[in-house]
Automatic annotation (TrEMBL):
Protein's organism: Pseudonocardia ammonioxydans
UniProt xrefs under Gene3D superfamilies: Vaccinia Virus protein VP39 (3.40.50.150)
Pfam families: Ubie_methyltran
Region annotation Disordered: where it falls in the sequence: 1-23
Keywords: Methyltransferase, Transferase, Ubiquinone
Organism superkingdom: Bacteria
Gene Ontology terms, MF aspect: methyltransferase activity
Protein name stated in the entry: Ubiquinone/menaquinone biosynthesis C-methylase UbiE
Length: 250
């Protein structure tokens, strides 16, 4: 019931809105990598919704000849979603958590998929341009989301697509209530039972509560220079809670 790992530049001593010091978050994901796939597998719709966001990018021709970036790829769930809609594309997955990437690399991938250990801000060892970027559960964990959106725009070819797959509940009292109930009724107790700790799951709860509404996310993308910005939500309990926000580089 958790989201994909954050990919951020550590900032020593900084305390994020979610309560964990930012430089500690990748370490928490490193420690939880062994349980991660099992936990997200218990979330109804988790993988289907990642595939939905990937499909909403409308990538042509099974991805033949395309280069795709999976920013914040974690253990590879979002990478698999991209591969499902673009099996012939070159896919580069990046994440700040070495533990998550180690687990991702143990899975069977075609030679067209590779993983790079780097933050989304630095993108060390990653060169554009890309035809599309998927950033799942990433932007709300970054110190400067506007700068990151501009960086994504620079990494895209003209006409390329950015898809943000993200929790966003600020615009809906119903969505906020659902998120609170699911977090404290399921996510945090399940995380405690599986890992013996709750810091990361309380971090998730708080970070979503303090993040942009989906309208603000669309505004951020437009301000960063994206065209044709729009959003779609998901089905099930995630309706109005999880969204795809899409935009195109002119």
């Amino acid at each position: 019931m958790v989201d994909t790992p954050v990919s951020r530049a550590p900032r020593t001593g900084a305390v994020g809105r979610a309560g964990l010091p930012r430089h500690e978050v990748p370490t928490h994901f490193d420690d939880g990598a062994g349980d991660y796939d099992r936990l997200v597998g218990m979330n109804p719709g988790y993988h289907d919704h990642l595939r939905a966001s990937a499909a909403r990018m409308r990538l042509p021709h099974d991805g033949a000849g395309l280069r795709l970036l999976d920013a914040g790829c974690g253990t590879g769930a979002s990478t698999a979603a991209l591969l499902g809609v673009a099996p012939r594309a070159e896919i580069v997955g990046v994440d700040a958590s070495a533990g998550m990437l180690e687990r991702a690399r143990t899975k069977p991938w075609p030679g067209s998929v590779r993983f790079v250990h780097t933050t989304a801000e630095a993108m060390e060892g990653v060169e554009g341009p890309f035809d599309a970027i998927l950033a799942a559960y990433l932007l709300r964990n970054l110190d400067d989301p506007d700068a990151q959106l501009r960086r994504f725009r620079e990494l895209l070819r003209p006409g390329g697509t950015l898809a943000l797959h993200e929790y966003s509940v600020a615009d809906s009292p119903r969505a906020r209530a659902v998120w609170h109930a699911v977090s404290w009724g399921v996510i945090i107790p399940l995380g405690r039972a599986a890992t013996g700790e709750t810091a990361l799951y309380r971090h998730l709860w708080r970070s979503v509560n303090s993040f942009d509404g989906v309208g603000r996310l669309r505004d951020r993308m437009r301000a960063a220079g994206f065209d044709a910005v729009h959003s779609e939500t998901m089905t099930g309990w995630q309706n109005g809670v999880v969204h795809t926000v899409l935009g195109t580089r002119p």
